[in-house]
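If it is no trouble, can you show me the amino acids of a protein and the tokens describing how it folds?
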Amino acid sequence: MKITVGVSGASGIVYAVRLLEVLYNLKIETHLVLSEWAERNLAYETDKCLAEVKALASVVYGNRELDAPISSGSFPINGMVVIPCSMKSLSAIAHGYSDSLLVRAADVMLKERKKLVLVPRETPLSMIHLNNMLTATQAGAVIMPPMPAFYNRPQTIDDIVNHTVARVLDHFEIDNGLIKRWGSK
């Protein structure tokens, strides 16, 4: 399996880091592209350095590398997740404004009818945000805001992050064992 991981500049880069850690440990091939603001948020929100995060990916591309393999529908890949997904990236994806590799790769997922999971991180949501989510959904994307569940009784922030990451991986049918499932004992 091969998955593109796009990381845009919304708050919540911890979700992307954890997803990359899990995919790395599962030995799943990942193609990573970070926006400029994602790189900045990494420094603002974590103690990780950019090199550490990039080392978790199989392949890393610059966001201006529009000739990267993931920008083509002929490149064999199973799907993509944008985690976190800023409202700017959501808008660009919903409206096909492919001025960066992150957005172009997402556009390719939609046109090729492959799995595209967007993890928007914003609150409150304006009508513009909601309309962009609707447009992206109608085009085939899955909108998955990082909403914590409490039936599993999270004790730490990691528990909450793991729940979102596990749910993202569920959409790619990747067994991960990160969370206690509803109804399990």
